[in-house]
Design goal:
Distance between the termini: 32 Å
Helix content: 10-25%
Strand order of the largest sheet: 3-2-6-9-10-5-4
Number of helices: 3
Strand content: over 45%
Largest sheet: 7 strands, antiparallel
Radius of gyration: 16 Å
Amino acid sequence: MLSGAVDSKRFRSMMGTFPTGVAIIATEWNGELFGATINSLTSVSLAPCMLLFCTNEGSATGAAIRRRGLFSVNILGQHQSELSHRFTGQLKNRFDDLAPAFSADGLPLLQGAAARLCCRVATVHKAGDHDIILGEVISGEESMCNPLVFHKGAYGSFQRA
C-alpha cells in the first residue's frame, strides 16, 4: 500500500527518477524565432507518424507553435547540454549567435542534433497547467551521436548495458 500525499514538489522528485531525452522544439512566427527545451517528448503513432510534447500554458514558444501550426523537434546529442540550458533560461533571443539551418517551411533546425523532425500540429489538449501538443511528423533526419539524457535534475549520457 502506498502512503504519503503527493504534492507538486514530491511529484517532480518522483518523476525525476525517470530518465528522459532532451529536445528543443522550435518554430518561426511573424519573422521571430521561438524555441524551448523539453523532456516530455514521446512517440504516439507509426501510421501516421505522430509525436507529442508538453509545454507550459504561458509559454511564448507554445503560443507561437499553436499560431503557426508547424514546429521542429531537435533531439539533442550528449555534446549539446549548453544548448539545452540556453533554451530553458530567461534569455530573450535564444537563437542569437547560433546558425540554425531551416527546413523548406522555414522551421529552425539545430546543427549537430541527434535527430531533427518537422511536424504539423494535429491537436492541442489542455492538461492542468500545461498544453499537450500532438504533431504529425512530415519530415526528419538523424545523425550518429549519443543522446543527451536528463535524470534527477542533471544531464548525463546513455551507455548500453
